[in-house]
Amino acid sequence: MLKKADFKENEASTAIVIGSGFGGLAAAIRLSCKGYQVVVLEKLDAPGGRAYVHRRDGYTFDAGPTIITAPFLLEELWELCGKKMSDDVDLRLMDPFYRIRFDDGTHFDYTGDPARMRAEVAKFAPEDLPGYKRFLAEAEKCYKLGFQELSSTAFDSLGDLVRAIPSMIKMRAWESIYKLVARHLKNDKIRQVMSFHPLLIGGNPFSVTAVYALINSLERRHGVHSAMGGTGSLIKGLAGLLAGRGVQIRLNSEVKRIEVVDGKAQGVTLANGEFIPADIVVSNADAAWTYQKLIAPEHRKVWTDSKVNSSKYSMSLFVWYFGTDKQYPDVPHHMILLGKRYKELLTDIFKKHKLADDFSLYLHRPTATDPSLAPAGGDAFYVLAPVPNLASGTDWAKEAEPYRQAIAKYLDESVLPGFEKHIKTSFCMTPQDFQDRLLSVKGAAFGFEPLLLQSAWFRPHNRSEDVQGLYMVGAGTHPGAGIPGVLSSAKALMSVVAEPKKALA
């Protein structure tokens, strides 16, 4: 039964938050400030979820998110607690935001400086400069309509959807982002540079709605940042805010079942059999997993097993973490290495669910900004390859090492010559880990694929359609994946969550 350590004895409404990723921590802060007494339940041995931190042999590796955009969404959480983020976290603006390297060795430095960006476009295709200007205008429109107006608004009813339709039409939401880009830009490389962003949130640029052009504007307006100490320092800061409010994060506490009686959530049962009651339950776990694995079928009329199984899921990721005893100053903090194939590779990943022989990569070198993440004279890296989710049937126990070796060979021949003899620590994460460790259906790294008919009202709602007193935050609900997305989901939650019975003193 409920332990006194979890909730204090008073009349305040109680809330359980499942999962301590960015979405869960943001939701817990907002609920606490609203007057709920909150406990956060985390399966792993440390907070963060996909933003978990690995420490090996003197090296520090962020497990997942490394690109910090829309820092104002984080600053809001500190302000709610009467504090300043800058007192706890040192964010550094990246320059460039990314270096995008093509297979022929040429590269595009993507920055927030308008003049430098025009120069980069002109370097490859001066004839595309007028089209680039038109694309920026479209991206700005998507930002204002898609992000400022809709991202933190819960799509709770058909009426909410209907009210959003004029904005969706203005953004040509039925169009893919690649098609939007291709309408304005002719050069193939520039098309790739301006359309790759949805991959950062699990979307195929050839399928995902053009609304996601907003990412381009979001980055230009607010910059791309990195946190000193790694993304984990943000998690540590958010956990500190909760501790300051008396909110407990219970680690090693996997939720086995959300208990539902007469259609209402009553609390949760942990894997160890402990029952924790609560007035409301907020799940930051994978939305598909929440419905399919944590709620008995008889309580689900909308998100049935059939609907969960027939939904389309994002790709997954293969991530190789390694530390070297040598530094590579020519490699910037964020580097995208695009392979020879673009559309064809994405078709293999998203449509054919086929593990291809080639790949495109994201190479992360945080020690370019923060040398403390590696022993003196060394570098910390991770390299990430988008791969099919587990629908591919790939046996990662067999394929992980050959795939890692292929990536190593590519890096050796391109941007890290001879690096393997300098590796001092090394480990990998595969789609199987996304399923087994992070409890994600099909090992999808970003939950539901952000297609038009799997966005907004068509995603699992912030207020559950099936269970009273159950709410959703995180990548699987509105507005979607990525740090700005999951932080915005916690804001959307506030517009639909029940008022607490009594505010805490």
Quick recap:
This protein has 505 residues and is α/β, with parallel strands linked by helices. The chain has helices at residues 22-34, 71-80, 114-124, 129-148, 158-170, 177-184, 188-195, 214-222, 232-244, 287-294, 305-310, 343-351, 396-413, 431-436, 483-494; strands spanning 14-18, 37-41, 53-56, 59-62, 91-93, 98-101, 107-110, 225-227, 248-250, 255-261, 264-270, 275-277, 280-283, 316-324, 334-337, 361-364, 379-387, 423-429, 470-472.
What's the Cα radius of gyration?
22 Å
Largest sheet: 7 strands, mixed
List how many beta strands DSSP finds.
19
Question: In CATH, what is the class of the largest domain?
Answer: Alpha Beta
Give the tally of structural domains: 3
The CATH superfamily of the largest domain is known as FAD/NAD(P)-binding domain
**Kindly state the mean pLDDT as a whole number?**
94
Structural class of the helices, strands and pairings? alpha/beta
- N-C termini distance: 26 Å
Q: Do you know the CATH topology of the largest domain?
A: FAD/NAD(P)-binding domain
| Share of β-strand residues | 15-25%
CATH architecture descriptor of the largest domain: 3-Layer(bba) Sandwich
Give me the side-by-side strand order of the main sheet. 7-6-15-16-17-14-18
Unreliable spans: 1-5
Q: What overall geometry do the principal axes of the alpha carbons give?
A: globular
Number of helices: 15
Q: How much helical structure, as a percent, in the residues?
A: 25-40%
